[in-house]
Amino acid sequence: MSVTADLYIEVKNFYARQMRVLDDLDIERFTATFTEDGSVAHPHRGEKVEGREAMRTKMKSMLPMYEGLVTRHWFDHFLIEQAEGDGLRVTYYSLVTQTNTQDEVHFFSSSSVEDQMVREEGELRIRERVIHRDNPKYGRVI
Amino acid sequence: MSVTADLYIEVKNFYARQMRVLDDLDIERFTATFTEDGSVAHPHRGEKVEGREAMRTKMKSMLPMYEGLVTRHWFDHFLIEQAEGDGLRVTYYSLVTQTNTQDEVHFFSSSSVEDQMVREEGELRIRERVIHRDNPKYGRVI
Amino acid sequence: MSVTADLYIEVKNFYARQMRVLDDLDIERFTATFTEDGSVAHPHRGEKVEGREAMRTKMKSMLPMYEGLVTRHWFDHFLIEQAEGDGLRVTYYSLVTQTNTQDEVHFFSSSSVEDQMVREEGELRIRERVIHRDNPKYGRVI
Questions:
Q1: Helix (H) or strand (E) holding A112
Q2: Which one, A19, A76, A82, C135, has least CB within 10 Å?
Q3: What pLDDT digit, counting tens, does each position of C77-90 carry?
Q4: In what residue span(s) does the SnoaL-like domain sit (chains A, B, C) (predicted)?
């Protein structure tokens, strides 16, 4: 079932804010957009990080990969569906670019993403994110 | 005249679904998003394919170009206008990327697209698509 | 405070039209999307161009950079906030690509943009645009 225009835009605003804090490497504010037990999975490398604490640890360990670059996530083709309760299932395309000190922009990755969202105290939060990295070896999932 | 927010989002959902099936190379489901006599034109190579049957044949012949790659279409800057009857004229930018087995993302093309949409049994369908490949030789159309 | 779905889409339509005329290098119609005293700043090169007349002069001087290429601006992650009066503050990501006569697409730049919009005779216009070029040297602003 289709969601209302207001909910559609609320979801788009959620991602606009979440990507600003992610691309700003603000781990504290990024993990706060997940539920306390929220998870991020990268099935192509057999990885699932569960809970904000584990996410913070994992992200801190990966910071060196992002230093000296401006990373940007570009999303497209959102589909937003009602899930159980007042939850939502959101799927979209995700392209990641990085810019270096020489003003050169490069592709970092292309993926599709599946998010399970819930509402906590009125705010949308991610309970489960699955990132399917594009690679013909894995097949296309979304 | 501007369309309602609900119709705007219905159109965006149409493209989100259509691109998933196109990028999944699901020819059957992709051609079903066109009317039976729907057409796709590429004026820069003087080509116009008319009707679902001809589209299926053409797409099957082009499948080898897409093997071993994940193709993604990224759209932007939609303008949605009411056309005759309950039809719509939709124009937008289209960027196509491809990812190979080495996780490398490359540009495939940049274009602008004009779609004429109609409603059949409640569903939006494309009756005519014209893809203007970006190239300074052809001039910019949209 | 969040804006209505109708206003959200009106703003998106504004950018869809503004980018068509910018990417078409139509200086006259592009500057008309700004107020008469509208400005465009590029803080990373310490530049601020004020007023339509100065914008026209500046843009004409830069046309050679864009000749023989099709330039496209791709926007994402809009946040639209009410500002004083009936004004709006709009921020978003901006990726610029260029396609040459050999059909090759290249990145030109990655930026974030802050626009202050006002309404004049019913039409949205930009009063102030600040373009923050992505570069780890400058830090991330949006």
A1: strand A105-120
A2: A82
A3: 999 999 988 899 99
A4: 9-129
